[in-house]
Amino acid sequence: MSANLSFGKTLEAYHLPLSRRRPEILQLNVGKLCNLTCSHCHVNAGPRRKEIINAHTVDRVLAWLESTDITVVDLTGGSPEMIPDFRRLIETVRQFETPRRVIDRLNATIIEEPGYEWVPGFLAENEVEIIASMPCYQPDNVEEQRGEGVFEASIAAFQKLNALGYGIEPHLRLNFVYNPNGAFLPPEQEKLEQEYRKAMREHFNISFNSLYCIANMPIARFASYLKREDRLADYLSLLRNAFNPTTIDSLMCRDTINVNWRGEVFDCDFNQMLKLPTEENGRHIRAWEIDPDTFSNLPIRTGSHCFGCTAGAGSSCSGSLT
């Protein structure tokens, strides 16, 4: 039904309202600075990017966050560990009167970079949950997507994390993220997780908790790749034709507040990169201006990229939706 319809019209055709719930997650994108330039990156992150959150914005976000009942702080980037206020931000959140669960979307190779040897111990000390990119358990596929030497560096980092109890102790969760290495949908998550678990244990003696399968979004660097290969239209058609109405109830935009390095609010990290802000009375709002009691009344902005979250088994920052 959705092949020739916009995302909004597709929701209407299926009689599916897309509305917010009370926010439970603050996803804070602290900037575009990263030590890698991955081909699938929707942020266009890299070593030369200058956009990072400053101390004043961190202070304002933290003050607002403490006044809310949001339970999860999800840090993403870029490589969050590269910003100057990374440690202060996490320590402050963990020391709130009501401590919040903290997630670090870790580019594991940062652990192997000079000057970042502190990362594993710091994350473990603060019981930060790790979600780490690991697009395959085979070196060639990983390095085609993320760059030369990334597989070996990631394996070394995961072994260090395991040595601290990550992926083993209940309070130190280590999760992997799979992204397709091309213009196709992720495979069935549970089956792929079993394959990962077997390969990582047998070949590298590495343990982890869960595997999250996430679809590649047709924006930023991945969209540029698709255009170069003359495959953008085909990929968009693939996503539209695979629309799954049962994913709507679990979409991350329903209970997540996404905030950029300037403190500006979006419905998701993809809307952030596409410059589709969350607005109230026609004005782009900042995190510290949000009233969680009324935020759920604001409409969610959608576009053709939203088919990426609703195709097949669905896709979110925590993997498949169905």
Quick tags:
322 residues, alpha/beta, TIM Barrel, 8-stranded mixed sheet, two-stranded antiparallel sheet, 10 strands, 33% helix, 12% strand
Task: Describe this protein's structure.
The structure is a single chain. The chain has one domain: Alpha-Beta Barrel (TIM Barrel), CATH 3.20.20.70. Helices cover 33% and strands 12% of the residues. The chain contains 12 helices and 10 strands. The protein has helices at 7-13, 55-66, 86-94, 119-125, 139-146, 150-163, 189-204, 220-228, 232-241, 269-273, 292-295, 307-310; strands at residues 25-29, 72-76, 101-106, 129-133, 174-178, 210-213, 256-259, 265-266, 279-280, 283-284. The strands form 2 sheets. The chain has an 8-stranded mixed beta sheet with strand order 6-5-4-3-2-1-7-8. A hairpin with a 2-residue loop joins strand 9 (279-280) and strand 10 (283-284). The chain is globular, with a radius of gyration of 19 Å.
Can you tell me the CATH topology?
TIM Barrel
Uncertain runs: none
- Which bin fits the share of residues in helices? 25-40%
Strand content: 5-15%
Report the average pLDDT across residues. Answer: 92
Note the overall shape.
globular
Biggest β-sheet, characterized? 8 strands, mixed
CATH class: Alpha Beta
**What is the radius of gyration computed over CA atoms, rounded to a whole number of angstroms?**
19 Å
User: Strand sequence of the main sheet, in spatial order?
Assistant: 6-5-4-3-2-1-7-8
Number of structural domains: 1
CATH architecture: Alpha-Beta Barrel
Number of strands: 10
CATH superfamily: Aldolase class I
Question: With helices defined by DSSP (H or I, 4 residues minimum), what is the helix count?
Answer: 12
Based on secondary structure, the structural category is alpha/beta
Distance between the termini: 20 Å
Question: Secondary-structure element sequence?
Answer: HEHEHEHEHHEHEHHEEHEEHH
Oligomer: single chain
